[in-house]
Amino acid sequence: MIDAQWLLGFSLLLFALSWVAILVRRNLIVMLMGVIWMFVSVALAFVGFARLHGSTDGRLGDEVAARGEAAAIVVLILAIAYLMVGLAITYSTTRSGSSSDVDDASDLRW
Amino acid sequence: MTAGALFFVLAFAVVVGTLFLLAEGRRTVSLCAGYLGISLALSGIMLLGGGIFVAILLFVLSMSTALALLLYGLRVQGRGQEGLDLPQPARLTGKLLGSAAVLAGVVLLSSFLPVAESNVSSQAVTADPALLGTVLFRDLNLVLSALGLLFLALSVGGLALVLGRPAE
User: What are the CA-CA distances from residue B145 to residues A77, B39, B139 (Å)?
Assistant: First the structure.
């Protein structure tokens, strides 16, 4: 049996690792991956909290578990929406021949 | 193997795989393969945690994301840009790590599915599908909001592609 505390701790660790990925690497693909893992860690935290508070018997526990999982599903759908916009911006940034290094896109242009 | 041991194995694989990916992953294929393996392991952790439907969604998201990133990365590399290149030893390491991560993810995912299904070993607090459907479709109307959000993201992404001016 996995305790909810372990799930929550792992989601915190995953969030920190994703943060490091975004801060350390300057590659657009790696940064996109890092942000998606951040979304996943938040979804994992929702599942962990649903497990923590939904362990009570009866209707209330079922309701909490269902709402926690619904929130996690919505967070993952948000990740998909983020990915759509992120990939489009990434593609339009690198379309002109520049590399996928974010430092190459640091200047704002009209 | 108990669900707890599987959880720790998967969590260790995710942490080590992410660190290796950050340190060594430069090539598009190895990056996407490593990403896929790590995301599959995360999907397994989600499954062990009791979020069955979230795990399925994450599985689909991982596959589609890895494919999209792979196509994008190969397109960048196909034009001769240095984008994701690295010297030869790191390429080999990345390929080996990526392949091992995908293999480990698939094997672990397939091996612990029966464990996760067993209420005795995992004791997962799984949401009742009927109740989850009620929450998603009726109470909060989350699905319609999410579809609207996806449509908005698609529109914004399309605008970024159409209006994004190439840098000079």
Answer: 10, 26, 12
Tokens for A9?
A: 């701790």
Question: Is B69 an 8 Å CB contact of chain A?
Answer: yes
Which is nearest to A72 in space by CA: B141, B120, B51, B14? B51
Phi-psi domain of B118 (left: phi exceeds 0; alpha: psi -120 through 50; beta: other): beta
SS3 for B108-137 is HHHHHHHHHHCHHHHCCCCCCHHHHHHHHH
Place of tokens 């996806």: B150
Which tens digits make up the pLDDT trace of A35-75? 999 999 999 998 888 878 776 666 666 777 777 888 888 88
Burial (CB count within 10 angstroms: exposed 0-12, middle 13-18, buried 19+), residue B140: middle
pTM metric for this prediction: 0.73
Topology at the third CATH level for domain A4-94: Helix Hairpins (1.10.287)
User: B167 vs A109: CB contact, 8 Å cut-off?
Assistant: yes
Minimal C-alpha gap between A74 and chain B (Å): 7
Domain map (residue ranges) of chain A: 4-94
Give pLDDT, residue A13.
92
Beta carbons of B123 and B49 less than 8 angstroms apart: no
